[in-house]
UniProtKB/TrEMBL annotation:
Protein name: Long-chain fatty acid transport protein
Membrane topology: Multi-pass membrane protein
Organism domain of life: Bacteria
GO molecular function: long-chain fatty acid transporting porin activity
UniProtKB keywords: Cell outer membrane, Membrane, Signal, Transmembrane, Transmembrane beta strand
Pfam families: Toluene_X
Family, similarity comment: Belongs to the OmpP1/FadL family.
Alphabetical list of SUPFAM superfamilies matching this protein: Porins
Subcellular location(s) of the protein: Cell outer membrane
Natural source organism: Chryseobacterium jejuense
Cellular component annotations (GO), alphabetically ordered: cell outer membrane
Length: 413
């Protein structure tokens, strides 16, 4: 029972990442410039700051894009020197947005994006198999929004966030020689965002935005156990199919962003962003099972699993640039540094996180009302000396990752 308890406590951490792991891939043009936000040239600004819609030069703007994200994680046990590498499939996040100005000072829009989610796949029999074998996370954000131009140089915008999330997790249960699959396909949450967008000078754009916490509610979760025999079913109070249900409320963190773009010359501009993520909301997470007594140390309710977390607030620093070679061709470069939200003592292999440096670049083409953008990024995560005493997980973790994307825009009038 002890091993099942420890592994189930990890579930809270796993599910938190079903909506809480931030993926900076919401605009191809933005990625090429380090994923900076103060760019109001088309509807791609909508996800970053709804107020930016008021400064889009077109009355109607439509954008869509997709990415390929490849990453590998290697863990080495420093006692045995045995190394294990993930075999992760290519991630394919996407985004789309539309904005429209029904009157001069009012803009409305809709943004659809996948800001959280990934898939990590370890070998079935690796040393951390009781923590994770495969974990697939997906999320979708739907954001209707409105922006009002308060002055020729100032706009305010706000959005409503409706989120849907999916988690599908496999891990071993070696105490009984089996496996468990954890799944919830209908987690939902609600939130909001708002921001101000300033253009005090034709050369300067300033974006200040806030995205609220979103509490994802998993009401229909199912844990399916598979054992060589049905003997453990009665011990764990599972049904005849080896299943038990669970509910959970999973807090996703808020995000603060300050961004600016300065036009050094008519052809050359520089952009910078600062992001602040409130990861300290992860003080603890709870999972309430229907029947399974997976928390024997909680006599008041042995079906209620409480997992303490020690996350910390984190920051991201971004710097990008764009140069117009002609009226049709644009070159872009960028770099950013992203802090991990937890220390080596809290490292978990389900969603490994690293302090990471990223370099980005891309090109853009304008063909009258149409735009085509191509971008790529190469991540350089810093290795970690894993020292998680709660899980008995020790060693060294390394990673590598790269991204590429294609985006389209259309500003007809």
């Amino acid at each position: 029972m002890k091993k099942i308890l420890v592994s189930t406590a990890l579930l809270a951490g796993v599910l938190s990442y079903a909506g809480g792991f931030r993926v900076s891939l919401q605009g191809v043009k933005q990625l090429a410039m380090a994923h900076t936000s103060a760019h109001a040239e088309d509807a791609s600004v909508a996800f970053f700051n709804p107020a930016g819609m008021s400064f889009i030069p077109s009355k109607l703007s439509v954008v869509a894009g997709g990415f390929g994200a490849s990453n590998k994680v290697t863990f080495q046990n420093l006692n045995t020197l045995q190394s294990t590498e993930t075999d992760n499939p290519l991630g394919t996040p996407f985004y789309a947005a539309i904005t429209y100005k029904p009157i001069e000072k009012l803009s409305v829009g809709l943004s659809v994006s996948t800001p959280f989610g990934s898939t990590i796949q370890w070998p079935e029999n690796w040393e951390g198999k009781e923590m994770v074998q495969k974990l697939e996370l997906k999320s979708f954000y739907f954001q209707p929004m409105v922006s009002v131009k308060l002055a020729p140089w100032l706009a305010f915008g706000a959005s409503y966030i409706y989120a849907r999330g999916v988690v599908n997790w496999d891990k071993a249960v070696t105490q009984f020689g089996g496996q468990v699959n954890i799944k919830d396909e209908k987690a939902t949450g609600h939130g909001y965002g708002f921001g101000f967008y300033f253009r005090p000078d034709p050369k300067l754009d300033v974006s200040i935005a806030y995205r609220s916490p979103v509490d994802m509610k998993a009401k229909n979760g199912v844990a399916t156990f598979k054992f060589p025999t049905q003997t453990p079913y009665s011990l764990l109070k599972l049904n005849a199919a080896g299943q038990d249900g669970f509910t959970a409320e999973l807090p996703l963190v808020e995000e603060y962003t300050i961004g600016l773009t300065y036009k050094v010359t008519p052809k050359w501009q520089i952009s910078a962003d600062f992001n602040y993520h409130g990861w300290e909301r992860y003080s603890k997470l709870t999972l309430d099972f229907d029947n399974a007594p997976l928390a024997p140390n909680n006599p008041g309710d042995p079906t209620l699993v409480v997992s303490p977390k020690n996350f910390k607030n984190s920051k991201t620093f971004r710097l990008g640039t764009q140069y117009a070679f002609t009226n049709m061709i644009y070159g872009r470069l960028g770099a950013y540094y992203d802090e991990s939200p937890y220390t080596n003592e809290n490292f978990i292999p389900e969603t490994p996180s690293f302090d990471t440096y990223v370099i980005t670049g891309g090109v853009g083409f304008k063909l009258k009302q149409f735009g085509i953008d191509i971008a790529g990024g190469y991540a350089m995560p810093q290795y970690r000396n894993v020292n998680n005493a709660n899980l008995g997980f020790y060693g060294q973790a390394k990673a590598r990752a790269f991204y590429f994307g294609l985006g389209l825009s259309y500003n007809p009038f």
